[in-house]
Amino acid sequence: MDPIDLSLVASNLAGPAGAATWQGGVTLLNVAGTTGPRSSYLRLLSLLGHELMGGQRSQVERTGRMSPLPEINEESNLILRKGAVDEFGSAVEMANAFVRTLETRISTTPGRSVASSRQHLPAQTSGSSTVRPVDRSAKAGQSTVTPPTQPPPLPVIAFRSAATRERDGPIWQRPIVWIGAALLVALCLGAIACYFTIQQLVHIVGENGRQEQVVDKHETPVLKPVEPEKQQVSGAQTLTVPGQYATIQSAIDAAKPGDTVSVKAGVYNEKLKFKEGIELKGEGRETTIVRYAAAPTALAGQSSYDAPLEVRNCKSGQVEQLTFEQTAADSRQATPGTNICKIDGIIVVNSSITIKNCRATSAAACGIDVSGSGSAPTLIANQCRLSVFSGILFEDGAQGTVENNICEQNQADGIWMLGPGTAPNLINNECRSNKREGILFFRGAGGKAEQNLCEQNDECGIGAFDPRTAPELIKNQCRSNRLHVIFFSFGALGRAIENICESNSDSGIAIRAAFPFLSENTLRGNAHYGLAHDTASKPTFGVRNQTSGNKIGEVTTNTVFKSKSGLWPLSIRMHLVAWMI
After folding, report:
1. Are residues 431 and 477 in the same domain?
2. Do the beta carbons of residue 370 and residue 378 sit within 8 Å?
3. Which helix (H) or strand (E) holds 112?
4. Are residues 313 and 419 in the same domain?
5. DSSP, residue by residue, 446-474
6. Which among 380, 341, 382, 336 is positioned nearest to 364, based on CA atoms?
7. Number of other residues whose CB lies within 10 A of the CB of residue 569
8. What separation in angstroms does the CA of 287 have from each of 74, 270, 322, 529?
9. Which residues does residue 463 pair with via DSSP β-bridges, in sequence order?
10. Of 168, 187, 218, which one is at a domain's C-terminal end?
11. Are 421 and 558 members of one domain?
12. Is 74 a member of any domain?
């Protein structure tokens, strides 16, 4: 019998018609073209049948080519080829088709008819189609493979029909079951071996990462390199003032990142320049005081300022348990076009250090002044009181966190945010008894004020003034202020949500020509209205605000504000703006 070309390429696998075309002497098995669990066991069964009937399975697996077997006829070889490329719906369908070809061949021998052999082989169904016995008469023109003069081929048990297998005894006695079980056990054992091998490799890598270098006791040990940051911390020192150093500044100059400058109780008349990455710590803010009288000569835009403490371009570091007092007044008048600069108790420029448990005050300006878009300090539990201007000022795009500070009895605001991009987070601060607002957002500033207490201030509890000013005011308590609790004015935006505004000498929330969003605020017991705005205002509302017990009325939408209410005359505003230039 001439070899038949059963080559399969990607185009032949596109469908049953293409896959069933004989094109040469051998069948080329394209394993990559079949996927899924069904293709796996049909292909294995075809290869097993090919091997049992004398084929070279190793050659097939090595070359991917299946040559026709001379021991079986052309139709039987076709069945094996179809199984190798998964053209059967199931293994049962392939087995029945193969058995029919064998029984057809046997029926052509003397003494047995084709009809008698078929009457014992009922039609088999697969899915919705029925597989009928092959009609050999339709293939009368095809040649029949004549077996060579040698013993008949071995029986192919793996391809018998279901009825035949039922007569052969228990399923566990069938060779195909034993072969499949052996393959499954081998796969499981291989998977387990791979798993434990990977675990061992991971363990070895982990041990190597933690293991110290082992050296001979007679050799010089080779130490592992240490990261610079860890090396600094491991070698951190404490520099004491006085004792090791006569002045705080000399200790700061000698300190390295990670070192601590420890200052004993006392009054130190110095102007300090902070250093990146160090800690400056006093024995207590009540007893450890840095005091400096700055000459009234500073101008805006200088590269540095003489102040009790200046922090410039420091991304890390900490200051705690110290008091900083700027004791010199500055009588210079700020007018438009001037560039004078009055000195604060602590000046922070483009820095992100932590200042906690300190006191800061200035006889000329603010307690703490934070400026520059590169600034994002953390101010925690400080006291900023009795300054000529605000307790804490954020300006020029500064960010940061201000938490649990007390800002009181200052001549301007408790905490003041100034300018576009300025947006710190104010949390749980107490701002009371200040001459202006407890908290003021001004000239385009933003940020968030949450859970702050603003009380007994001479102007408003919280103010938001000027266009593009858009703070978020959440759950603050504002009470007993002399004007409004919360005041949005002159184009301000922003949001006021769940604030308590009570017992103030004017209205709970007042809006003059502004456009805030209000939701779930409690407005009660105020001397004028719970909510008051003029006709130029366009507030929007979320959940209903609760108003009760306000003396004149709960809500008014056409109020007329006095010139003094909440925003100073234009001359004063220009004076303040010029002071900040």
Report:
1. yes
2. no
3. none
4. no
5. --EEES-EEES-SS-SEEEESTT---EEE
6. 341
7. 10
8. 108, 16, 8, 47
9. 440, 487
10. 168
11. yes
12. yes
Does residue 342 share a domain with residue 259? yes
Among residues 152, 168, 184, the one where a domain terminates is 168
Same domain? 426 vs 384: no
Indicate the pairing of strand 24-25 with strand 4-5.
Answer: antiparallel
Question: Are 257 and 345 part of one and the same domain?
Answer: yes
Q: Give every CB contact of residue 474 below 8 A, 6+ residues apart in sequence.
A: 448, 449, 450, 451, 495, 497, 498, 499
Question: Is residue 581 a part of any domain in this protein?
Answer: no
Whether 403 and 430 have beta carbons less than 8 Å apart is answered as no
Rounded distance, CA 517 to CA 488, Å? 10
Residue 185 maps to a domain: no
Question: What digits encode the pLDDT tens for the residues 437-480?
Answer: 999 999 999 999 999 999 999 999 999 999 999 999 999 999 99
83 and 29 Cβ atoms separated by less than 8 Å: no
**Shared domain check, 450 and 357:** no
Which residues lie closer than 8 Å to 20 by C-beta, 6 or more apart? 82, 87
Is the residue at 579 inside a domain? no
346 and 433 part of one domain = no
State how far Cα 28 lies from the chain centre.
51
Identify the H or E element spanning 40.
helix 37-52
What CATH number is given to the structural domain containing 362?
2.160.20.10
The C-alpha atoms of residue 475 and residue 308 are separated, in whole angstroms, by: 35
Q: Which domain holds residue 234?
A: 227-388
Q: Nearest Cα to 551, choosing from 492, 488, 502?
A: 502
**Would you give the DSSP letter of residue 32?**
G
Tell which residue, 455, 406, 409, has the closest CA to residue 426. 406
- Rounded to an integer, what distance in angstroms lies between the CA atom of residue 235 and that of residue 245? 19
Element counts in the chain: helices (H) and strands (E): 11, 43
| DSSP bridge pairs for 299 | 340
- Each residue's pLDDT expressed in tens, for the chain with a length of 581 residues: 344 333 333 333 333 433 334 444 444 454 444 444 444 567 777 777 777 777 777 777 777 777 787 877 888 888 878 877 777 777 778 878 877 776 665 555 444 443 333 333 334 433 333 334 444 333 334 444 444 444 444 444 444 444 444 445 555 556 666 777 777 777 777 778 777 778 777 777 666 555 444 334 344 444 444 444 444 455 899 999 999 999 999 999 999 999 999 999 999 999 999 999 999 999 999 999 999 999 999 999 899 999 999 999 999 999 999 999 999 999 998 777 788 999 999 999 999 999 999 999 999 999 999 999 999 999 999 999 999 999 999 999 999 999 999 999 999 999 999 999 999 999 999 999 999 999 999 999 999 999 999 999 999 999 999 999 999 999 999 999 999 999 999 999 999 999 999 999 999 999 999 999 999 999 999 999 999 999 999 999 999 999 999 999 999 999 888 754 444 443 334 334 444 44
Domain count, the chain: 3
Token pair 């940061």 is at which residue? 400
Rounded Cα–Cα distance for residues 338 and 327 (Å): 23
**Among the listed residues 401, 318, 387, 393, the one whose alpha carbon sits nearest the alpha carbon of residue 359:** 387
Residue with token string 């200040």: 434
The DSSP call for residue 342 is P
